[in-house]
Amino acid sequence: MHHLLYLHGFLSSPTSVKAQATKNYFAKHHPEVTLHIPELSNFPSKVEAQLVELIENNPELLEGGLKVIGSSMGGYLSTFLIEKYSGKAVLINPAVRPYELLQQFIGPHVNPYSGEKFSIGLTDIDIIKALDIDALNNDKAYKVLLQTNDETLDYRLAAAKYALSDLVIEEGGDHSFVGYENHLPAIAEFLLD
C-alpha cells in the first residue's frame, strides 16, 4: 500500500480540477494508492502546523519516504516537506518565492471554493518566508512541470531553482497547467518507482 499526499494551491481546494483529476486517475489505475488531499488552511500562519500534524497523525505517509504532488503554493509547501522529511515530490507550476507574490494579497479574501473569509497580513508573509528552502538536499527528489505562459508565476524562477531536477518545460499553457491529466502516468511512475 502506497500513501500519497496532494497539496493544492493558494485560494484553491481539494475539489479543484487538478486535485480531482489526480484522485480519479489513482483510483482507476493505482487502487493500491491511498491519496490524501487535505483542505489546507487559508491562513498562511496555520499551514505548517497543519501539515506537520497531518504527517505525525498519519505515519504511514512516511513509509518508504514521503510522496507529494504540489500545485503552485502547494509546490512550495511540498518542497518544505521533502526537505524536512525526505521523499519525492512532483511540483506543478510551483511557487518559488510566494512571500513576494503575497505582498499583492495583503487584505481580506474569500476562498472561491469554500466561501471562507480570511485576511492576509505582513506576519503571514514572514511565516511563509520562514518555510523557504535556499538549497535542495537532493535535486533528484523532484519532478517539476512548468508551462511558460503561467500568468501567475514566472516559470523561470522554478526552472532555475530545480534546474538539476527532472524538469519538464512546456511552451504555452497557463497557471492551471493545461493538459495536466496527460502527465499523470509519468507522475505516478516517478512517485511509485
Topology summary:
Layout (H helix, E strand, L loop, with lengths): L1 E6 L9 H13 L3 E4 L7 H14 L8 E6 L1 H13 L1 E6 L5 H4 L5 E4 L6 E4 L1 H8 L12 E6 L7 H7 L4 E5 L13 H9 L1
Parallel strand pairs: 1-2, 1-3, 3-4, 4-7, 7-8
Antiparallel strand pairs: 5-6
Brief characterization of the structure:
With 193 residues, the chain is of the alpha/beta class.
Low-confidence stretches: none
Count of the separate structural domains: 1
Number of strand segments: 8
The coarse overall form would be globular
CATH superfamily: Alpha/Beta hydrolase fold, catalytic domain
Element-by-element helix/strand order? EHEHEHEHEEHEHEH
Structural class: alpha/beta
| Gyration radius, in Å | 16 Å
By DSSP (H or I, 4+ residues per run), the number of helices equals 7
- Main sheet characteristics: 6 strands, parallel
Pfam families: UPF0227
Protein name: Esterase YqiA
InterPro entries: AB_hydrolase_fold, UPF0227/Esterase_YqiA
How would you explain this protein's 3D organization?
InterPro entries: AB_hydrolase_fold, UPF0227/Esterase_YqiA. This is Esterase YqiA. With 193 residues, the chain is of the alpha/beta class. It has one domain (2-192): Rossmann fold (3-Layer(aba) Sandwich). Helices cover 35% and strands 21% of the residues. It contains 7 helices and 8 strands. The protein has helices at 17-29, 44-57, 73-85, 98-101, 122-129, 155-161, 184-192; strands spanning 2-7, 33-36, 66-71, 87-92, 107-110, 117-120, 142-147, 166-170. The strands form 2 sheets. A 6-stranded parallel beta sheet has the order 2-1-3-4-7-8, with helices on both faces. It has a two-stranded antiparallel ribbon with strand order 5-6. The longest helix has 14 residues, at 44-57. The protein is globular and about 40 Å long. The model has no long low-confidence stretch (mean pLDDT 96).
